[in-house]
Amino acid sequence: MAELKPADRMKIKRHPMPNQDEHVRRGNFDEVALGYAPATAREEAERCIQCKDPKCVQGCPVGVLIPQFIKALREEDMVQAVEWMKVKNNLPAICGRVCPQESQCEGNCILGRKGDPVAIGRLERYVGDFELAHRTCPLAKAPKTGRRIAVVGSGPAGLTCAVDLGREGHDVTIFESLHGPGGVLIYGIPEFRLPKGVVHNEVNYAVECLGIQIKTDHVIGRSYTLDELLAEYDAVFLGTGAGLPSFMRIPGINLNGVMSANEFLTRVNLMKAYQFPDYDTPVKLGRKVAVIGAGNVAMDAARCSLRLRALAAQKNAAGEQGEVHIVYRRSKDEVPARHEEVEHAEEEGVIFDFLTSPIEILGDEKRHVRTLRCVRMELGEPDASGRRKPLERKGSEFDMDIDTVIMALGTNPNPIVFVDADGLERTKYGTAVAEHETGRTKKRRVWAGGDVVTGAATVISAMGAGKRAAADIHAFVKGESRWD
Amino acid sequence: MYTILKKEVLTDVTKLMVIEAPHVARSARAGQFIIVRIDEYGERIPLTIADYDRAAGTITIIFQELGKSTKQLGKLAPGDTLASFAGPLGHPTEIGNYGTVVCMGGGVGIAPIYPITRALKEAGNRVISIIGARTKNLLFWEDRMMSVSDSLIVCTDDGSHGRACLVTEPLKELLEDKDKRVAKVWAIGPASMMKFVTLTTKPHAVPTIVSLNTIMIDGTGMCGGCRVLLEEGARFVCVDGPEFDGHKVDWDSLLSRLSFYKDEEREAVEYYEHKCRIDGETMKRRK
Ligand SMILES: Cc1cc2nc3c(=O)[nH]c(=O)nc-3n(C[C@H](O)[C@H](O)[C@H](O)COP(=O)(O)OP(=O)(O)OC[C@H]3O[C@@H](n4cnc5c(N)ncnc54)[C@H](O)[C@@H]3O)c2cc1C
Ligand SMILES: Cc1cc2nc3c(=O)[nH]c(=O)nc-3n(C[C@H](O)[C@H](O)[C@H](O)COP(=O)(O)OP(=O)(O)OC[C@H]3O[C@@H](n4cnc5c(N)ncnc54)[C@H](O)[C@@H]3O)c2cc1C
Ligand code: SF4
Ligand code: SF4
Ligand code: FES
Fold first, then answer.
1. A271 touches chain B (CB under 8 A)
2. What is this structure's pTM?
3. Is A431 in contact with A455 (CB distance < 8 Å)?
4. How remote is the CA of residue B221 from the centroid of ligand 5, in Å?
5. pLDDT, tens digit (0-9, with 9 covering 90-100), for B31-40
6. CATH number of the domain to which B147 belongs
7. Distance from the alpha carbon of residue A14 to the mean position of ligand 4, in angstroms
8. ipTM of predicted assembly, 2 dp
9. Which domain holds residue B44?
10. Domain ends where: B89, B111, B139?
11. Position B31 in a domain
């Protein structure tokens, strides 16, 4: 294609993502977004005007070299595109799928001021998928340094840290309490949004190329304490995430049919309950499901619920499709989930109840959920976080006919790793205290990053933290930086 | 992969296995548990650490064949392997010298109460033990329990061995006997048994420790599926327990939560047995 002028570029319309039809996809767990075809990817790449001072890069938590990779893509030099990508981001196939682009790279793209931003996330996924299929950019390992590093937790923070340290030639061991690596990427985010094959492929490749050891079933704080790891390793990185669910303090939370989004998603994703009884773990869902909250976790829980209802209806001709509600106390404008997920959820048939807050769950004589009692809310003045505070409307109580309640209200750091970890300072929210730039905690030779430090955040911010910590750990074990 | 080194049949439905798991054995203590997953398709089920050998790097588990997973586990033999074996999980039992204590084991609960009984005896307590089961064939380790107790009372529901009564009956007599001065009670067994033990000790204000067996998934505090209501609010059995002050537990809520997946548990067994039949053998592992 001839070189285009910026004005021409800006006339090209943003290319929609081809998706599985909403009527079909609500009955399966296959990936919803199918990915750009090569021609579409190149045309979308043509839209970028190659800013001298690219605002998009400032919006990305790890500063991906966006104009560079997009230029290489449209010049059909995929090998170069992958190389530009990998300078800052080890896992583009994952980030391209799950980053909240609208508030990060794409939210800053200059084209977004007047029209639609460049579809950076979709192009990133395209590059990532190319790399998964062709592996043009092998992970090279530097000569062995003889330094031993323990990484606790195998989510995006731990994996990124381990890969970067492995490349430097260190001997890296990952300790993971679950039976498989990936953290939220495998137990939380569903297959239809992030296929597990993508995660396994990335993990296996890194393990093979760099000789990283992964010890699953190892619960740090119990199998080994932090101090025991410090006795055997030169440095320890904690990427244990924030997986401890919170429940609303309302009556009825222990009724049968009330569960945390983590329990529900773990059963469905990690344990594959949607394939019960071929897989042993079941999940029990009523006809009418209410998911409380409106973040990514809530959208995932609602959309998995829809699919399980549809599968049940297929299996049993008399089975009803049922209803799935999102119950959220603020309005649509405040919804924290990725826009794409909200859109997909709406298309698939999730019912949104905004400005609604549960006050009690009522059950029948067998202690099964039957009713969700709620009040209507209205938005008052902005609070400290800048968001408008929801206030209860007096006398607006009403009952919803509901038999499953899934709480998606946020999570706190996993507690067990802190058992017998003297000197590791924590905030009143239970998060580990660590320096932003280096990941150093208050305990010598222990680094931390990701959700365990920030509380529930994003995949890319966890990866960024893992990367910064790896750089500092490398400098420390090589004796280039001190820690007294 | 974790290898099964030894298998012992304790009763028709109760099996003992010694598993090679050095990472668990190195720090295991009485009262803690593990989470096992048999194969790629398996669910994660919690089992108490019945014994451990740090030097050999082994963990002993004892389980009752109730549903799909425990039945499948029971078919495995020495040399077979398990896909996951995570632990040790939960808090160890607190052992002290309290005076006279009563240790109670119901059914498969006899297995986990044994190391606790032994530790309490070693700590200098006067230990009275009560073990029970529905019928004689489900009892095991009478001799072992005797060897670590000052006295042992055996009961069966149907009177086929020992006294014909529930374990709460001799407990009540001990509590009412002013000379015995029971200081503390430990009870492990089916939830309904533990509930009635705590109802029996409550009027006498004798502290009673129970080990709760809720449904679990991860066992590391991540799902909240194991939560139990105590007087002070909800607690996670896998990280805050498994042992709790039995007088604070909301038993009816616990019992109803235990039964929530009954239909699916039955379906899983039927599906498994059907598959075994068409495979024409005791299917140890699916392909
Ligand atoms: C359902 C859901 C959907 C989400 N959707 C998005 C999205 O679309 N986009 C986005 O950017 N972010 C999303 N997030 C958030 C994102 O997944 C997290 O911010 C990110 O995974 C944090 O990474 P991490 O490495 O810090 O921790 P985690 O991914 O939580 O990994 C921590 C790992 O440590 C292990 N561990 C914990 N304790 C121990 C211990 N004691 N010993 C050994 N191992 C231990 C855990 O088992 C786990 O595997 C979502 C989160 C959830 C739950
Ligand atoms: C901390 C902890 C420690 C445990 N230790 C042991 C142990 O050492 N040995 C052992 O045999 N079991 C133990 N259990 C119970 C064990 O985990 C369950 O029996 C097991 O999960 C059953 O799995 P299944 O698939 O075979 O049966 P399922 O299909 O899950 O259940 C089959 C039938 O048994 C009933 N059932 C299920 N779980 C229980 C339970 N916990 N108590 C009573 N009835 C139940 C069900 O209602 C159903 O009718 C422990 C549980 C916990 C939480
Ligand atoms: S890593 Fe995420 S935020 Fe950064 S460029 Fe890629 S999609 Fe955008
Ligand atoms: S801001 Fe938008 S147009 Fe400018 S370089 Fe970035 S992606 Fe291209
Ligand atoms: S088993 Fe998941 S929190 Fe206890």
1. yes
2. 0.93
3. yes
4. 4
5. 999 999 999 9
6. 3.40.50.80
7. 13
8. 0.92
9. 2-89
10. B89
11. yes
